[in-house]
Amino acid sequence: MKLMKLGLIAAAVLFFSSCGTKITDYYPLREGVSRVYQINKSEKQTIENFKLREMNKVSVVPQKIVSAKGTAFHFIALDKDGVFRYAVQAPNAVEPTVLALPEYILKNPLKPGKSWEAGASIALLMESIPYTMTYLVESKKETVTVPAGTFENCLLVKGSGLVQKDKGALGVIKISVSEDSWYAPGIGLVKSVRKESGNHVLVASGEKLLQLLSYEK
Q: Which CATH number belongs to the domain containing residue 84 in this structure?
């Protein structure tokens, strides 16, 4: 029984390979895969895949994420619909937190026009505000150049969301979020650009550029 459960990810990969949609080409889940990213100009982030394990009878791949904020973990799962975050563990947290709903990173079928929604949250005036991001597959033929090299036939996924919160005397605060992400076949995420724009003086607008510096397959 345990072997059957642990084989769910492998079975899903084989199924979608036979259908011509190998989602793990764009989001590798193999043990030992690691990537180093540059965030804007000075910060770095490292993501490393660990061995497949079970969490609440769900097969997950733990990802260790090291950045200036500390060490966090995301627990990634795969089903017939796509690749999603099943649980997260923030820096200094003792145990992982299982997400109320799966947060799909990529969703089948990966073809232009495919869209889906995923939950997200943002820090606003010392409060974590949940909102919904909508993602759209824009292209599968992008060429992207980053410090790690030039990658062809990249998948471009565009995301957008709107955060709204009534803060009483401060009024209704709105933040528009956009996110463009490029995934290279066999490598994974190679670049993303996230922009936030607010309607209030207490909310700073800004841009976060993430680029691949190096990787191990």
A: 2.40.360
